[in-house]
Amino acid sequence: MHRLQVVLGHLAGRPESSSALQAAPCSARFPQASASDVVVVHGRRTPIGRASRGGFKNTTPDELLSAVLTAVLQDVRLKPEQLGDISVGNVLEPGAGAVMARIAQFLSGIPETVPLSTVNRQCSSGLQAVANIAGGIRNGSYDIGMACGVESMSLSGMGNPGNISSRLLESEKARDCLTPMGMTSENVAERFGISRQKQDDFALASQQKAASAQSRGCFRAEIVPVTTTVLDDKGDKKTITVSQDEGVRPSTTMQGLAKLKPAFKDGGSTTAGNSSQVSDGAAAVLLARRSKAEELGLPILGVLRSYAVVGVPPDVMGIGPAYAIPAALQKAGRLLCGEARNSCREGEPAGGCNSPGPPPGLHGSKAGCHATQ
After folding, report:
1. Residue 359: φ, ψ to 5°
2. Which domains, and CATH codes, for the chain?
3. Residue from 271, 292, 118, 103 nearest 186 by CA
4. Which residues form the Thiolase N-terminal domain (predicted)?
């Protein structure tokens, strides 16, 4: 997206900037198909619900996760016991949702012999789950695995960080780890010259793309409709079926965005309109070794060539993709050239972080679902 190109431009002038961030001519070619390739087989997700106000406000995360686990296995007619491992990204549940995820596994009819783990890498938790499963396939531990992400921001708020050492006062970097996410957004905007106008422009484009995609049914194939129970304002139970993302706002205008007040500090530029909403949802992506997928007659929708994780200062954590994407491209054998930059700039043609606005635990697994459609 344009945001990434702008951030890359800012970072390129910094002394500590990596040469990986510089544009260069493309000369590499992807390798030929190999029996050992890690391939994407299938993916499904729930709709993205509005936290505390949407259709999933009373739905527990294990139910959301169970819905997508069940759907993926049924779609490809894979026996649950054929899974070698399950990795689930989650941020807000206690213990990264380990108990919750294991419960979801059993609710989906997956036997206890299939191992499961959870992972918390903040907003990259779902993507880290994909990387974990891919790593297990590559090292020969198993041939098929499920990578998932789930979050209920309705039922698990952004609580305190837990027991923290008083020695954090001795380290600026340690103190920065406690910076609220909204303030990290303000820091990025100030440090890299991203104006309120640019943020509102991006938010409007995100809403327009998502609204267009939703109206054309682009998300229909990846979404698992979820029938659940919700409590109305009087406390009465009502059964509903949630079948589309609730964060898409087709009526968004620049005039409306401009009227919103800064959400995190006086004179700031981050508002409720140009931020991602708080949300509920789940997603699951099935990965396999190419040889096993072919043996079982499973679809092969893509190949996972590489992934990369790069640490950045915690008080501007939002710049992470500007470092990690070039690193992943280089590992895949493709330099960051014009073609790749264009792909980044148009990386979410059906919305983006503002709309539909996935919650932190499933960003990566939701992206995987998009990639399978």
Report:
1. -75, 165
2. 2-8+37-156+180-372 (3.40.47.10)
3. 271
4. 38-290
Look at residue 179 and tell me whether its pLDDT is greater than 80.
yes
Cis peptide before 359 (omega within 30 of 0): no
pLDDT for the residue numbered 128: 97
Q: What are phi and psi of 201, to 5 degrees?
A: -60, -45
Tokens of 4: 């990434």
Q: Over the stretch 18-68, which tens digit does the pLDDT of each residue have? A: 444 344 444 445 678 999 999 999 999 999 999 999 999 999 999 999 999
Q: Which helix (H) or strand (E) holds 363?
A: helix 363-372
Q: Which helix (H) or strand (E) holds 188?
A: helix 181-192
Distance CA 231, CA 228 (A): 10
- What distance in Å separates the CA atoms of residue 134 and residue 132, rounded to the nearest whole number? 5
* pLDDT band at 262; cut points 50, 70, 90: very high
As a whole number of angstroms, the distance between CA 102 and CA 41 comes to 23
Residue 255: alpha-carbon gap to chain centroid: 29
CB 90 within 8 A of CB 152: no
Helix 125-138 vs helix 363-372: angle between axes, to the nearest 10 degrees? 70
Closest CA to 371 of 289, 291, 286: 286
Q: Are 245 and 28 in contact (CB under 8 A)?
A: no
Highest-pLDDT range among 96-105, 331-340, 363-372? 96-105
Q: Classify residue 27 as exposed, middle or buried by CB count within 10 Å of its CB (0-12, 13-18, 19+).
A: exposed
- Cα–Cα distance for residue pair 160/170, rounded to 1 Å: 20
Sign of CA dihedral 348, 350, 353, 357: negative
- CA-CA distance, 181 to 153, in Å (whole number)? 15
What pTM was computed for the model?
0.87
